[in-house]
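We modelled each protein-ligand pair independently. The example shown here corresponds to the adenosine-5'-triphosphate entry; the chain sequence is given first, followed by the ligand as SMILES.
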Amino acid sequence: MKIRFREVTKEFGAFTALSGFNLDVRPGEFLTLVGPSGCGKSTLLDLLTGLVKPTGGEILVDGRPVEGPGLDRGVVFQQYALFPWHTALANVEFGLEATGVPRRKRASIALRHLELVGLGGFASHFPHELSGGMRQRVAIARSLACDPEVLLMDEPFAALDAQTRETLQEELLDIWQRTGKTIVFITHAIDEAVYLGQRVAVMTPSPGRVREVVDVDFDTRSGDLRADPRFGEYRHRIWSLLREEASPLAQAIG
Ligand SMILES: Nc1ncnc2c1ncn2[C@@H]1O[C@H](COP(=O)(O)OP(=O)(O)OP(=O)(O)O)[C@@H](O)[C@H]1O
């Protein structure tokens, strides 16, 4: 297994955010994680990056406990987190500085990754000259340029309009297929989880744990997956799981 969460608990003072959380992620897998607001999705990602320590249990990457942040794990957040005073190229290069890549090599690696996300012609643009979708592409390029084995994504497309979001979803699948990265992708959106994930881990409300992992098994990932009748079936299955877990009040008003 690439990543293992074993009986992970996370408490913030008296509040338990995660309890008995178990999940395995396979090498090269695209796993999506859905759950209600506040169920601990972002906390899980913080644990996986090593920015936060679990209260109990363990998180293993390649069989080794996560001790802190590492270049083997790249992160893309909802907010672009680009430096406004740097060009797209310099933003991607910045990520490479930490990896010890010699200065003269950084520009060519950065450009190659801007090309990978379709922004080869925008290397000298500043973030304010780019659309939201383009800025998020730069953020993805910056993470990929460091060549992490695992890409952790926390609602990276949530702030984008529907059409841009669908375009970026397609592009991300393409990048995943080309690079073979292991991707853990957090989302609120059931459609997005089904479209992107080979498996969808459905979480319970706080304290979060895995309710069920749904295998999403399309014959092929090419073509319009959303038009496949099975897309609707998976969507409904996940919706039902989330609804079963919702509070009686939410069910009554929902
Ligand atoms: N540093 C912290 N101190 C105290 N409580 C925290 C802290 N970080 C998170 N929490 C709490 O832990 C719970 C889980 O938070 P988290 O952000 O992981 O949820 P989430 O599933 O990502 O939510 P959303 O989908 O709304 O982004 C929330 O109730 C939150 O208030």
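Residues 12, 15, 17, 35, 37-43, 188, 206 surround adenosine-5'-triphosphate (CB under 6 Å).
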